């Protein structure tokens, strides 16, 4: 079945024409951006328009390889270290796209803002990234960002063709906060329903110096119940948001330098889980 | 502009983190607590019957924990001579990490070592700091998530209510 026919089965003809016109324009913009992005590792400022009308700017770090990291914002800072890691990954051949979801909605980088990211828009971004890049995509997010990103991935997986679905390698979550409500002392924590609804390979990194470390196995059990293949690693001697810490220790600085290596290691694990 | 929004948000979070409240306990029986202190001396919750006990789970990497420690020391001083004790349960850090921390922050109360997170799991602690106030019978009466100025009059009054009459 041709790509065009697959799409037309899922959307009305009018919508498909609109999507394709937008895609051609964006492909042109991206090609132009890529052409201007020499040497590699330099971020190209481009944007994606959502069907809701939201314009989302994204930084693109072009890489020659077949894998693309779609990195969503940290809820504990301005994404400086994520951009540095993306630059290093691009030099190693892995492309990275960092959409500014919070900026698009005028939200400050705090956990409560991240909860306002519309999962529908995340699904659209994944869709456009898969189609425009033609690469295999891995999602990366942190903290409370795990909720809307996994929700968006779920929406996208439900709509995607089997061929497109294979393009999503999985998700890498750094210190995810997936509680449905902030757990009170002495009360059993309840996880957001997306944990049980996620059924794709997931890799979790958790800082050793964080309370979440003690509940990691608990969270993994919840993911497994939903059908996700889950793996994890506790990062020694660092806090949960080590790369965004205002007062990083020597160990946290060293671990931040290793972010590209951590992402590549996690991708290997995710690929082996597929 | 982004930095300004970020700064304002941080300021908001800091002020809201201070506005903590003691929540009356509506859960079940008190979980067991049997841990060693920094010198290896074993402590059991039962050893403290007849005293109001504040069981607090904390870590050296937790900024609100560091901030509230001096107020906990002041609280103990204010209630000196009364049957009140603080048991500060460290969340799985090494003895050296805690001793280094003690050089910087005065914490003149009993520190217990939860090396393998067993107490943390039994007491269902997800955030540092998390505090539990127990009456003289060993029943949990209040909990609090996040830091506080423990020697503030409202907290001293609540704790004093749990103390046995003279």
Characterization of this structure:
- The complex is a heterodimer of chains A (274) and B (166).
- Chain A is of the alpha/beta class and 274 residues long.
- Chain A has helices at residues 3-10, 13-36, 80-91, 101-104, 111-114, 119-133, 146-159, 162-165, 193-197, 216-225, 250-257, 259-273; strands at residues 44-49, 55-61, 67-71, 95-99, 136-142, 168-174, 202-209, 230-239.
- Chain A has a single domain (3-273), classed as Rossmann fold (3-Layer(aba) Sandwich).
- Mean pLDDT of chain A is 84; it is low at 1-17 and 27-41.
- The longest helix of chain A is centred in the N-terminal third of the chain and has 24 residues, at 13-36.
- In chain A, strands 1-2-4-3-5-6-7-8 form an 8-stranded mixed beta sheet, with helices on both faces.
- Chain B has an 8-stranded mixed beta sheet with strand order 1-8-7-4-5-6-2-3, covered by helices on one side.
- Chain B has a single domain (22-162), classed as Glutaredoxin.
- Helix content of chain B is 35%, strand content 23%.
- Chain B is built from 5 helices and 8 strands.
- With 166 residues, chain B is α+β, with helices and mostly antiparallel strands.
- The interface between A and B is medium-sized, with 24 and 33 residues.
């Amino acid at each position: 079945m041709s790509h065009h026919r697959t799409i037309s089965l899922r959307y009305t003809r009018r919508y498909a024409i609109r999507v394709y016109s937008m895609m051609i324009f964006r492909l042109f913009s991206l090609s132009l951006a890529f052409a201007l992005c020499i040497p590699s590792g330099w971020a190209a400022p481009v944007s994606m328009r959502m069907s809701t009308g939201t314009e989302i700017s994204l930084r693109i770090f072009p890489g020659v390889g077949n894998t693309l990291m779609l990195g969503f914002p940290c809820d504990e800072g301005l994404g400086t270290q994520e951009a540095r890691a993306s630059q290093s990954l691009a030099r190693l051949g892995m492309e990275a796209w960092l959409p500014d979801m919070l900026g698009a909605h005028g939200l400050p980088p705090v956990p409560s803002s991240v909860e306002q990211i519309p999962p529908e828009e995340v699904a659209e971004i994944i869709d456009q990234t898969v189609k425009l890049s033609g690469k295999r995509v891995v999602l990366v997010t942190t903290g409370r960002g795990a909720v809307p990103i996994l929700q968006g991935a779920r929406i996208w997986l439900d709509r995607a063709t089997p061929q497109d679905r294979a393009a999503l390698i999985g998700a890498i979550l750094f210190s995810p906060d997936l509680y449905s409500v902030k757990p009170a002392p002495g009360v059993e924590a309840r996880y957001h329903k997306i944990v049980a609804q996620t059924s794709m390979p997931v890799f979790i990194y958790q800082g050793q110096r964080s309370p979440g470390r003690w509940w990691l196995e608990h969270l993994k059990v919840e993911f497994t119940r939903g059908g996700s293949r889950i793996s994890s690693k506790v990062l020694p001697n660092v806090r949960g948001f080590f790369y965004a810490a205002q007062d990083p220790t020597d160990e946290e600085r060293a671990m931040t330098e290793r972010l590209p290596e951590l992402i590549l290691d996690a991708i290997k694990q995710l690929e082996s889980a597929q | 502009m982004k930095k300004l929004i970020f700064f304002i948000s941080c300021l908001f979070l800091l002020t809201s983190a201070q506005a903590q409240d003691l929540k009356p306990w509506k859960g079940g029986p008190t979980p067991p607590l049997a841990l060693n202190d920094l010198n290896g001396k074993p402590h059991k919750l039962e050893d403290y019957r007849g005293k109001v006990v504040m069981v607090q789970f904390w870590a050296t990497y937790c900024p609100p924990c560091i901030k509230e420690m001096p107020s906990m020391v002041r609280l103990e001083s204010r209630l000196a001579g009364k049957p009140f004790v603080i048991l500060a349960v460290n969340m799985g850090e090494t003895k050296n990490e805690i001793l280094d921390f003690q050089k910087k922050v005065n914490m003149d109360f009993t520190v217990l070592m939860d090396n393998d997170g067993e107490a943390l799991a039994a007491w269902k602690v997800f955030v540092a700091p998390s505090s539990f106030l127990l009456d003289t019978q060993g029943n949990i009466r209040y909990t609090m998530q996040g830091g506080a100025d423990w020697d503030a009059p409202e907290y001293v009054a609540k704790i004093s209510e749990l103390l046995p009459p003279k």
